[in-house]
Specification:
Elements (H helix, E strand, L loop, with lengths): L1 H28 L18 E3 L5 E3 L3 H8 L2 E8 L27 E9 L5 E5 H4 L4 E5 L5 E10 L4 E6 L20 E6 L7 E12 L24 E4 L11 E3 L5 E8 L10 E5 H14 L10 E4 L2 H7 L7 E5 L8 H5 L6 E5 L2 E2 L3 H8 L7 E8 L2 E8 L17 H5 L1 E5 L2 H6 L6 E6 L3 H5 L7 E5 L2 E2 L3 H9 L6 E8 L2 E10 L1
Antiparallel strand pairs: 1-2, 3-4, 3-6, 4-5, 5-8, 6-7, 7-8, 9-10, 9-12, 10-11, 11-14, 12-13, 13-14, 15-16, 16-17, 17-18, 17-19, 19-20, 21-22, 22-23, 23-24, 23-25, 25-26
Amino acid sequence: MNRFGSLLLAAMLGSVITIVSTQWLMESKQPGVRIEQISGVPASQIGYTKNESGEIVPLDFTGTAERVTKAVVHIRSTQQKSVRSNQQIPDQFRFFFDGPFENQGPSQSTGSGVIINKDGYIVTNNHVVDGADIVEVTLYDNRQVKAEVIGTDADTDLAVIKVNEKDLPFLSFVNSDESKVGQWVLAVGNPFNLNSTVTAGIISAKGRDINIINSGTPSINGQPGTRTAIESFIQTDAAINPGNSGGALVDINGGLLGINTAIASPTGAYSGYGFAVPSNIVSKITSDLISYGAVQRGWLGINIRSVDTNLVRENDLEVTEGAYVLGFGDIEDKSAAKEAGIKEGDVVIKLDDHAIKSSTALIEYIGQKRPGDKVSVTVNRKGKTLVIPVTLKSRDGKNSIVSRDEKTEAVNMGFELEDIDSKVLKRLELPNGVKVKSITNGKIQRFTEMREGFIITHINDVAVKSAKEIDEILKKKKTGDLVTFAGVYENYPREIIYALRM
Protein backbone atom coordinates (compact mmCIF):
# COMPACT_ATOMS: atom_id res chain seq x y z
CA MET A 1 0.00 0.00 0.00
CA ASN A 2 2.83 2.38 0.91
CA ARG A 3 4.54 1.48 -2.37
CA PHE A 4 1.35 2.20 -4.34
CA GLY A 5 0.97 5.56 -2.60
CA SER A 6 4.54 6.48 -3.43
CA LEU A 7 3.98 5.64 -7.10
CA LEU A 8 0.78 7.70 -7.20
CA LEU A 9 2.51 10.70 -5.63
CA ALA A 10 5.38 10.42 -8.11
CA ALA A 11 2.92 10.31 -11.04
CA MET A 12 1.10 13.39 -9.82
CA LEU A 13 4.36 15.31 -9.37
CA GLY A 14 5.43 14.31 -12.86
CA SER A 15 2.18 15.60 -14.36
CA VAL A 16 2.52 18.93 -12.60
CA ILE A 17 6.13 19.28 -13.78
CA THR A 18 5.08 18.43 -17.36
CA ILE A 19 2.27 21.02 -17.38
CA VAL A 20 4.47 23.76 -15.91
CA SER A 21 7.30 22.95 -18.31
CA THR A 22 4.98 22.97 -21.33
CA GLN A 23 3.50 26.33 -20.32
CA TRP A 24 7.01 27.76 -19.77
CA LEU A 25 8.14 26.54 -23.19
CA MET A 26 5.08 28.02 -24.92
CA GLU A 27 5.64 31.39 -23.26
CA SER A 28 9.34 31.34 -24.08
CA LYS A 29 8.54 30.76 -27.78
CA GLN A 30 6.12 33.76 -27.88
CA PRO A 31 7.99 36.63 -26.24
CA GLY A 32 5.81 39.60 -25.28
CA VAL A 33 2.50 37.80 -25.97
CA ARG A 34 0.30 36.87 -23.08
CA ILE A 35 -3.40 36.09 -23.14
CA GLU A 36 -5.26 36.83 -19.95
CA GLN A 37 -8.54 35.05 -19.31
CA ILE A 38 -10.86 36.33 -16.65
CA SER A 39 -13.49 34.02 -15.25
CA GLY A 40 -17.10 35.16 -15.13
CA VAL A 41 -19.83 36.26 -17.59
CA PRO A 42 -19.24 38.94 -20.28
CA ALA A 43 -20.01 42.49 -19.16
CA SER A 44 -23.53 43.56 -20.14
CA GLN A 45 -22.95 47.27 -19.56
CA ILE A 46 -20.75 49.44 -21.77
CA GLY A 47 -19.86 52.18 -19.34
CA TYR A 48 -21.13 54.49 -16.66
CA THR A 49 -22.73 57.92 -16.51
CA LYS A 50 -24.47 60.24 -14.05
CA ASN A 51 -28.21 60.20 -13.55
CA GLU A 52 -30.37 63.22 -12.75
CA SER A 53 -29.35 62.97 -9.11
CA GLY A 54 -25.67 62.97 -9.95
CA GLU A 55 -25.25 59.31 -9.05
CA ILE A 56 -22.94 57.05 -11.07
CA VAL A 57 -25.08 54.48 -12.90
CA PRO A 58 -24.56 52.05 -15.80
CA LEU A 59 -24.87 53.76 -19.19
CA ASP A 60 -28.27 52.98 -20.70
CA PHE A 61 -29.71 54.13 -24.05
CA THR A 62 -33.29 52.97 -23.50
CA GLY A 63 -34.69 56.21 -22.09
CA THR A 64 -33.03 58.34 -24.76
CA ALA A 65 -34.17 56.01 -27.55
CA GLU A 66 -37.77 56.14 -26.32
CA ARG A 67 -37.81 59.95 -26.32
CA VAL A 68 -36.01 60.45 -29.60
CA THR A 69 -37.99 57.98 -31.71
CA LYS A 70 -41.18 59.95 -31.02
CA ALA A 71 -39.67 63.01 -32.72
CA VAL A 72 -38.31 61.22 -35.81
CA VAL A 73 -40.78 60.75 -38.68
CA HIS A 74 -40.99 58.71 -41.87
CA ILE A 75 -41.26 60.74 -45.09
CA ARG A 76 -42.61 59.57 -48.43
CA SER A 77 -42.16 61.89 -51.40
CA THR A 78 -44.06 61.50 -54.66
CA GLN A 79 -42.95 63.23 -57.82
CA GLN A 80 -45.15 63.51 -60.85
CA LYS A 81 -42.91 63.27 -63.88
CA SER A 82 -42.88 66.13 -66.35
CA VAL A 83 -46.00 65.80 -68.48
CA ARG A 84 -45.23 67.01 -71.98
CA SER A 85 -47.54 66.46 -74.92
CA ASN A 86 -48.00 67.82 -78.41
CA GLN A 87 -51.11 69.64 -77.21
CA GLN A 88 -49.08 71.65 -74.69
CA ILE A 89 -46.60 73.01 -77.24
CA PRO A 90 -47.57 75.52 -79.95
CA ASP A 91 -47.11 74.41 -83.58
CA GLN A 92 -44.26 76.84 -84.22
CA PHE A 93 -42.23 75.30 -81.35
CA ARG A 94 -42.74 71.56 -81.85
CA PHE A 95 -39.79 71.37 -84.23
CA PHE A 96 -37.40 72.13 -81.35
CA PHE A 97 -38.60 69.28 -79.12
CA ASP A 98 -37.52 65.69 -79.33
CA GLY A 99 -40.46 63.23 -79.05
CA PRO A 100 -42.22 61.22 -78.10
CA PHE A 101 -44.29 63.25 -75.67
CA GLU A 102 -45.72 60.69 -73.33
CA ASN A 103 -47.22 60.97 -69.88
CA GLN A 104 -45.00 59.34 -67.31
CA GLY A 105 -46.11 57.78 -64.04
CA PRO A 106 -45.15 59.06 -60.59
CA SER A 107 -41.98 58.08 -58.75
CA GLN A 108 -41.57 57.77 -55.01
CA SER A 109 -38.74 58.05 -52.53
CA THR A 110 -38.59 57.67 -48.78
CA GLY A 111 -36.49 59.04 -45.96
CA SER A 112 -36.62 60.41 -42.45
CA GLY A 113 -37.17 63.74 -40.76
CA VAL A 114 -36.82 65.32 -37.32
CA ILE A 115 -39.52 67.41 -35.65
CA ILE A 116 -37.80 70.54 -34.31
CA ASN A 117 -40.70 72.31 -32.62
CA LYS A 118 -44.16 71.47 -31.30
CA ASP A 119 -45.92 73.30 -34.16
CA GLY A 120 -44.93 70.77 -36.79
CA TYR A 121 -41.75 72.07 -38.41
CA ILE A 122 -39.58 69.19 -39.59
CA VAL A 123 -36.01 69.23 -40.89
CA THR A 124 -34.87 66.64 -43.41
CA ASN A 125 -32.50 66.32 -46.36
CA ASN A 126 -33.07 68.23 -49.56
CA HIS A 127 -32.62 65.03 -51.58
CA VAL A 128 -35.51 63.42 -49.68
CA VAL A 129 -38.08 66.00 -50.87
CA ASP A 130 -36.34 67.52 -53.88
CA GLY A 131 -38.83 67.98 -56.74
CA ALA A 132 -41.66 66.35 -54.78
CA ASP A 133 -45.24 67.22 -55.67
CA ILE A 134 -46.66 65.37 -52.67
CA VAL A 135 -44.94 64.89 -49.31
CA GLU A 136 -46.50 62.55 -46.74
CA VAL A 137 -45.31 62.17 -43.16
CA THR A 138 -45.94 59.23 -40.86
CA LEU A 139 -45.74 60.25 -37.21
CA TYR A 140 -44.60 58.05 -34.32
CA ASP A 141 -48.21 57.02 -33.57
CA ASN A 142 -48.74 55.92 -37.22
CA ARG A 143 -50.83 58.95 -38.18
CA GLN A 144 -50.23 59.88 -41.82
CA VAL A 145 -50.45 63.58 -42.71
CA LYS A 146 -49.61 65.73 -45.73
CA ALA A 147 -46.68 68.13 -45.42
CA GLU A 148 -45.80 71.44 -47.07
CA VAL A 149 -42.25 72.14 -48.26
CA ILE A 150 -41.24 75.40 -46.55
CA GLY A 151 -37.83 75.71 -48.17
CA THR A 152 -34.79 73.82 -49.39
CA ASP A 153 -31.04 74.42 -49.57
CA ALA A 154 -29.00 72.45 -52.07
CA ASP A 155 -25.70 73.76 -50.66
CA THR A 156 -26.16 71.87 -47.38
CA ASP A 157 -28.64 69.24 -48.61
CA LEU A 158 -31.18 70.41 -46.03
CA ALA A 159 -34.89 71.14 -46.25
CA VAL A 160 -37.71 72.20 -43.95
CA ILE A 161 -41.25 70.86 -44.26
CA LYS A 162 -44.31 71.47 -42.07
CA VAL A 163 -47.32 69.44 -40.99
CA ASN A 164 -50.52 70.98 -39.70
CA GLU A 165 -50.33 69.43 -36.24
CA LYS A 166 -49.84 70.88 -32.76
CA ASP A 167 -48.12 69.82 -29.53
CA LEU A 168 -45.83 67.34 -31.25
CA PRO A 169 -42.79 65.83 -29.52
CA PHE A 170 -39.60 67.48 -30.78
CA LEU A 171 -35.83 67.52 -30.37
CA SER A 172 -33.73 70.48 -29.26
CA PHE A 173 -30.44 71.40 -30.89
CA VAL A 174 -27.19 71.14 -28.96
CA ASN A 175 -23.91 72.85 -29.81
CA SER A 176 -22.16 70.58 -32.31
CA ASP A 177 -18.91 72.53 -31.90
CA GLU A 178 -18.66 71.10 -28.38
CA SER A 179 -19.05 67.50 -29.49
CA LYS A 180 -15.95 65.34 -29.20
CA VAL A 181 -14.46 62.55 -31.26
CA GLY A 182 -15.09 59.34 -29.34
CA GLN A 183 -18.32 60.36 -27.63
CA TRP A 184 -21.38 58.12 -27.83
CA VAL A 185 -24.13 58.97 -30.32
CA LEU A 186 -27.37 57.38 -31.54
CA ALA A 187 -28.65 57.42 -35.12
CA VAL A 188 -32.44 57.31 -35.44
CA GLY A 189 -34.37 56.91 -38.68
CA ASN A 190 -36.21 54.61 -41.04
CA PRO A 191 -33.66 52.57 -43.03
CA PHE A 192 -35.16 50.28 -45.67
CA ASN A 193 -38.61 51.45 -44.44
CA LEU A 194 -37.93 49.90 -41.03
CA ASN A 195 -39.56 52.57 -38.91
CA SER A 196 -38.02 53.91 -35.69
CA THR A 197 -34.68 52.15 -35.98
CA VAL A 198 -32.05 53.12 -33.41
CA THR A 199 -28.33 52.36 -33.78
CA ALA A 200 -25.44 53.31 -31.49
CA GLY A 201 -21.84 54.27 -32.13
CA ILE A 202 -19.33 57.01 -31.56
CA ILE A 203 -18.26 60.17 -33.34
CA SER A 204 -15.39 58.93 -35.49
CA ALA A 205 -14.27 62.29 -36.90
CA LYS A 206 -15.42 65.88 -37.43
CA GLY A 207 -15.15 68.37 -40.26
CA ARG A 208 -15.31 65.79 -43.06
CA ASP A 209 -15.60 67.06 -46.64
CA ILE A 210 -16.48 64.07 -48.84
CA ASN A 211 -17.46 66.05 -51.94
CA ILE A 212 -20.97 64.62 -52.38
CA ILE A 213 -22.93 67.88 -52.63
CA ASN A 214 -22.64 69.14 -56.18
CA SER A 215 -24.17 72.59 -55.83
CA GLY A 216 -22.62 75.60 -57.53
CA THR A 217 -22.07 77.01 -60.97
CA PRO A 218 -20.89 74.67 -63.74
CA SER A 219 -17.71 75.09 -65.74
CA ILE A 220 -18.29 76.83 -69.09
CA ASN A 221 -15.92 76.98 -72.05
CA GLY A 222 -13.10 75.52 -69.99
CA GLN A 223 -13.52 78.06 -67.20
CA PRO A 224 -13.90 76.41 -63.77
CA GLY A 225 -17.21 76.84 -62.00
CA THR A 226 -17.73 77.85 -58.39
CA ARG A 227 -18.55 75.17 -55.81
CA THR A 228 -20.99 76.54 -53.24
CA ALA A 229 -21.53 73.39 -51.17
CA ILE A 230 -20.97 73.49 -47.43
CA GLU A 231 -19.58 70.16 -46.24
CA SER A 232 -18.23 69.73 -42.74
CA PHE A 233 -19.82 66.46 -41.72
CA ILE A 234 -19.75 64.66 -38.39
CA GLN A 235 -18.55 61.13 -39.15
CA THR A 236 -19.97 58.29 -37.09
CA ASP A 237 -19.81 54.50 -37.01
CA ALA A 238 -23.43 54.24 -35.87
CA ALA A 239 -25.12 52.21 -38.60
CA ILE A 240 -26.78 54.44 -41.25
CA ASN A 241 -28.46 53.01 -44.34
CA PRO A 242 -30.67 54.22 -47.21
CA GLY A 243 -33.81 55.61 -45.58
CA ASN A 244 -31.87 57.13 -42.68
CA SER A 245 -31.42 60.31 -44.74
CA GLY A 246 -32.88 63.23 -42.83
CA GLY A 247 -32.93 61.34 -39.53
CA ALA A 248 -31.42 62.34 -36.21
CA LEU A 249 -27.93 61.98 -34.81
CA VAL A 250 -28.24 62.60 -31.07
CA ASP A 251 -26.05 62.54 -27.99
CA ILE A 252 -26.80 60.17 -25.12
CA ASN A 253 -29.13 62.76 -23.59
CA GLY A 254 -31.20 63.05 -26.76
CA GLY A 255 -29.85 66.43 -27.90
CA LEU A 256 -29.85 66.88 -31.69
CA LEU A 257 -26.22 66.84 -32.87
CA GLY A 258 -26.83 66.50 -36.60
CA ILE A 259 -28.96 65.34 -39.52
CA ASN A 260 -27.87 62.03 -41.04
CA THR A 261 -27.17 62.62 -44.71
CA ALA A 262 -24.80 60.16 -46.37
CA ILE A 263 -22.82 56.96 -46.13
CA ALA A 264 -19.48 55.94 -47.62
CA SER A 265 -19.95 52.46 -48.99
CA PRO A 266 -18.80 50.33 -51.93
CA THR A 267 -22.11 48.46 -51.84
CA GLY A 268 -24.69 51.19 -51.18
CA ALA A 269 -25.35 49.82 -47.69
CA TYR A 270 -23.69 50.45 -44.33
CA SER A 271 -19.94 49.77 -44.31
CA GLY A 272 -18.94 51.59 -41.15
CA TYR A 273 -18.96 55.22 -42.25
CA GLY A 274 -21.93 57.57 -41.87
CA PHE A 275 -22.05 61.35 -42.15
CA ALA A 276 -24.31 63.96 -40.58
CA VAL A 277 -24.69 67.71 -41.09
CA PRO A 278 -23.67 69.36 -37.77
CA SER A 279 -26.50 70.85 -35.72
CA ASN A 280 -24.99 74.35 -35.73
CA ILE A 281 -25.32 74.46 -39.52
CA VAL A 282 -28.75 72.80 -39.41
CA SER A 283 -30.01 75.33 -36.87
CA LYS A 284 -28.93 78.30 -38.98
CA ILE A 285 -30.30 76.92 -42.27
CA THR A 286 -33.67 75.93 -40.79
CA SER A 287 -34.02 79.30 -39.08
CA ASP A 288 -33.40 81.08 -42.39
CA LEU A 289 -35.83 78.90 -44.34
CA ILE A 290 -38.59 79.35 -41.77
CA SER A 291 -38.04 83.10 -41.26
CA TYR A 292 -37.14 84.25 -44.77
CA GLY A 293 -38.09 81.43 -47.12
CA ALA A 294 -34.51 81.29 -48.39
CA VAL A 295 -31.04 80.81 -46.92
CA GLN A 296 -29.26 84.04 -46.02
CA ARG A 297 -25.66 83.08 -46.68
CA GLY A 298 -22.77 85.33 -45.81
CA TRP A 299 -19.75 85.17 -48.14
CA LEU A 300 -16.13 86.11 -47.62
CA GLY A 301 -15.69 85.93 -51.38
CA ILE A 302 -12.47 83.91 -51.54
CA ASN A 303 -11.29 80.65 -53.11
CA ILE A 304 -9.38 78.55 -50.59
CA ARG A 305 -7.60 75.26 -50.00
CA SER A 306 -6.32 73.59 -46.87
CA VAL A 307 -2.68 74.13 -45.98
CA ASP A 308 -0.63 70.95 -46.40
CA THR A 309 3.03 69.97 -46.67
CA ASN A 310 3.20 70.59 -50.41
CA LEU A 311 1.56 74.01 -50.12
CA VAL A 312 3.96 75.01 -47.33
CA ARG A 313 6.93 73.97 -49.46
CA GLU A 314 5.70 75.55 -52.71
CA ASN A 315 4.80 78.92 -51.15
CA ASP A 316 7.34 79.04 -48.31
CA LEU A 317 4.58 79.43 -45.73
CA GLU A 318 5.27 80.12 -42.07
CA VAL A 319 2.29 78.07 -40.82
CA THR A 320 1.33 74.42 -41.31
CA GLU A 321 -2.42 74.74 -40.71
CA GLY A 322 -5.11 77.04 -42.01
CA ALA A 323 -7.04 78.02 -45.16
CA TYR A 324 -4.85 79.34 -47.97
CA VAL A 325 -6.37 82.14 -50.09
CA LEU A 326 -6.02 81.13 -53.75
CA GLY A 327 -7.86 84.16 -55.07
CA PHE A 328 -11.31 85.69 -55.38
CA GLY A 329 -12.88 83.71 -58.22
CA ASP A 330 -15.60 85.05 -60.47
CA ILE A 331 -16.99 87.45 -57.86
CA GLU A 332 -13.82 89.48 -57.29
CA ASP A 333 -15.65 92.78 -57.64
CA LYS A 334 -18.14 91.66 -54.97
CA SER A 335 -15.67 90.04 -52.57
CA ALA A 336 -16.01 91.20 -48.97
CA ALA A 337 -12.57 89.81 -48.17
CA LYS A 338 -10.79 91.69 -50.94
CA GLU A 339 -12.60 94.90 -50.07
CA ALA A 340 -11.43 94.52 -46.45
CA GLY A 341 -7.78 94.02 -47.45
CA ILE A 342 -7.27 90.25 -47.53
CA LYS A 343 -4.82 89.27 -50.26
CA GLU A 344 -4.07 86.26 -52.39
CA GLY A 345 -1.49 84.13 -50.56
CA ASP A 346 -2.79 84.97 -47.08
CA VAL A 347 -3.48 82.05 -44.75
CA VAL A 348 -6.60 82.37 -42.62
CA ILE A 349 -5.77 80.92 -39.20
CA LYS A 350 -8.61 82.26 -37.08
CA LEU A 351 -12.16 83.60 -37.47
CA ASP A 352 -13.21 85.58 -34.40
CA ASP A 353 -11.97 83.33 -31.56
CA HIS A 354 -12.42 80.15 -33.62
CA ALA A 355 -9.17 78.49 -34.77
CA ILE A 356 -9.16 77.58 -38.47
CA LYS A 357 -7.05 74.54 -39.31
CA SER A 358 -8.47 73.73 -42.75
CA SER A 359 -10.62 75.08 -45.55
CA THR A 360 -13.48 72.91 -44.29
CA ALA A 361 -13.38 74.62 -40.90
CA LEU A 362 -13.57 78.03 -42.58
CA ILE A 363 -16.52 77.00 -44.75
CA GLU A 364 -18.39 75.59 -41.74
CA TYR A 365 -17.89 78.73 -39.65
CA ILE A 366 -18.82 81.21 -42.38
CA GLY A 367 -21.75 78.97 -43.34
CA GLN A 368 -23.35 79.90 -40.02
CA LYS A 369 -23.25 83.63 -40.83
CA ARG A 370 -25.54 85.99 -42.74
CA PRO A 371 -24.89 88.98 -45.00
CA GLY A 372 -24.05 91.99 -42.86
CA ASP A 373 -22.47 89.95 -40.07
CA LYS A 374 -19.02 91.16 -38.99
CA VAL A 375 -16.18 88.65 -38.67
CA SER A 376 -12.69 89.24 -37.32
CA VAL A 377 -10.34 87.42 -39.74
CA THR A 378 -6.82 86.61 -38.53
CA VAL A 379 -4.38 85.85 -41.36
CA ASN A 380 -0.73 84.96 -41.60
CA ARG A 381 0.88 87.01 -44.36
CA LYS A 382 4.47 86.00 -45.04
CA GLY A 383 5.06 85.29 -41.37
CA LYS A 384 3.24 88.35 -40.06
CA THR A 385 -0.05 87.99 -38.19
CA LEU A 386 -2.78 90.47 -39.16
CA VAL A 387 -6.32 90.87 -37.81
CA ILE A 388 -8.71 92.16 -40.48
CA PRO A 389 -12.37 92.99 -39.74
CA VAL A 390 -14.69 91.91 -42.57
CA THR A 391 -18.38 92.61 -43.11
CA LEU A 392 -19.81 89.64 -44.97
CA LYS A 393 -21.80 90.10 -48.16
CA SER A 394 -24.20 87.97 -50.16
CA ARG A 395 -22.94 86.36 -53.33
CA ASP A 396 -24.53 89.29 -55.18
CA GLY A 397 -22.37 91.73 -53.22
CA LYS A 398 -25.10 92.96 -50.87
CA ASN A 399 -24.72 93.14 -47.11
CA SER A 400 -28.38 92.84 -46.16
CA ILE A 401 -30.75 89.88 -45.93
CA VAL A 402 -33.56 89.28 -48.40
CA SER A 403 -37.03 89.03 -46.87
CA ARG A 404 -39.66 86.59 -48.06
CA ASP A 405 -41.65 89.46 -49.62
CA GLU A 406 -38.66 90.48 -51.76
CA LYS A 407 -38.47 87.15 -53.57
CA THR A 408 -39.04 87.51 -57.29
CA GLU A 409 -41.50 85.50 -59.36
CA ALA A 410 -38.53 83.80 -61.01
CA VAL A 411 -37.26 82.63 -57.61
CA ASN A 412 -40.73 81.36 -56.77
CA MET A 413 -40.64 79.28 -59.96
CA GLY A 414 -37.25 77.87 -59.00
CA PHE A 415 -34.55 79.78 -60.81
CA GLU A 416 -32.34 82.79 -60.14
CA LEU A 417 -31.49 85.18 -62.97
CA GLU A 418 -28.73 87.68 -63.59
CA ASP A 419 -28.22 90.36 -66.21
CA ILE A 420 -25.49 89.83 -68.80
CA ASP A 421 -22.82 92.40 -69.58
CA SER A 422 -23.11 93.90 -73.06
CA LYS A 423 -19.55 92.77 -73.87
CA VAL A 424 -20.51 89.15 -73.19
CA LEU A 425 -23.60 89.48 -75.39
CA LYS A 426 -21.49 90.92 -78.18
CA ARG A 427 -19.00 88.05 -77.91
CA LEU A 428 -21.89 85.58 -78.13
CA GLU A 429 -23.42 87.53 -81.01
CA LEU A 430 -26.68 87.97 -79.11
CA PRO A 431 -28.70 91.21 -79.21
CA ASN A 432 -30.21 90.52 -75.79
CA GLY A 433 -30.44 87.87 -73.08
CA VAL A 434 -30.63 87.06 -69.37
CA LYS A 435 -28.58 84.29 -67.74
CA VAL A 436 -29.95 81.57 -65.46
CA LYS A 437 -27.61 81.80 -62.50
CA SER A 438 -28.97 78.89 -60.48
CA ILE A 439 -31.88 76.44 -60.40
CA THR A 440 -33.56 75.38 -57.17
CA ASN A 441 -36.60 73.33 -56.21
CA GLY A 442 -39.58 74.51 -58.26
CA LYS A 443 -41.51 74.25 -61.52
CA ILE A 444 -38.48 74.95 -63.70
CA GLN A 445 -36.67 71.94 -62.26
CA ARG A 446 -39.70 69.64 -62.19
CA PHE A 447 -41.17 70.36 -65.61
CA THR A 448 -38.19 71.29 -67.80
CA GLU A 449 -34.62 70.18 -68.34
CA MET A 450 -33.24 73.72 -68.14
CA ARG A 451 -29.74 73.93 -66.66
CA GLU A 452 -27.69 76.63 -64.99
CA GLY A 453 -26.00 78.84 -67.58
CA PHE A 454 -28.95 78.93 -69.97
CA ILE A 455 -29.34 82.36 -71.59
CA ILE A 456 -33.00 83.32 -72.03
CA THR A 457 -33.47 85.53 -75.08
CA HIS A 458 -37.27 85.38 -75.47
CA ILE A 459 -40.33 84.55 -73.40
CA ASN A 460 -43.34 83.71 -75.58
CA ASP A 461 -41.66 85.46 -78.55
CA VAL A 462 -41.00 88.62 -76.51
CA ALA A 463 -37.32 89.63 -76.36
CA VAL A 464 -36.00 90.09 -72.81
CA LYS A 465 -33.03 92.22 -71.77
CA SER A 466 -33.06 92.06 -67.97
CA ALA A 467 -34.06 89.88 -65.04
CA LYS A 468 -36.54 92.59 -64.04
CA GLU A 469 -38.29 92.33 -67.40
CA ILE A 470 -38.65 88.56 -67.04
CA ASP A 471 -40.09 88.93 -63.55
CA GLU A 472 -42.65 91.46 -64.77
CA ILE A 473 -43.72 89.12 -67.59
CA LEU A 474 -44.07 86.14 -65.25
CA LYS A 475 -46.09 88.11 -62.70
CA LYS A 476 -48.76 88.77 -65.36
CA LYS A 477 -49.21 85.08 -66.11
CA LYS A 478 -52.16 83.18 -64.68
CA THR A 479 -52.42 79.60 -63.51
CA GLY A 480 -52.53 77.33 -66.55
CA ASP A 481 -50.92 79.81 -68.95
CA LEU A 482 -48.27 78.32 -71.23
CA VAL A 483 -44.84 79.92 -70.92
CA THR A 484 -42.00 79.25 -73.38
CA PHE A 485 -38.38 80.15 -72.66
CA ALA A 486 -36.24 80.41 -75.81
CA GLY A 487 -32.48 80.79 -75.62
CA VAL A 488 -29.03 79.24 -75.94
CA TYR A 489 -26.13 77.86 -73.94
CA GLU A 490 -22.73 79.45 -74.40
CA ASN A 491 -21.12 76.24 -75.59
CA TYR A 492 -24.10 75.09 -77.70
CA PRO A 493 -25.14 77.51 -80.46
CA ARG A 494 -28.49 75.96 -81.38
CA GLU A 495 -31.59 77.67 -79.99
CA ILE A 496 -33.45 75.63 -77.37
CA ILE A 497 -36.99 76.16 -76.12
CA TYR A 498 -38.39 75.03 -72.76
CA ALA A 499 -42.13 75.09 -72.16
CA LEU A 500 -44.28 74.73 -69.05
CA ARG A 501 -47.63 75.81 -67.67
CA MET A 502 -47.91 78.21 -64.76
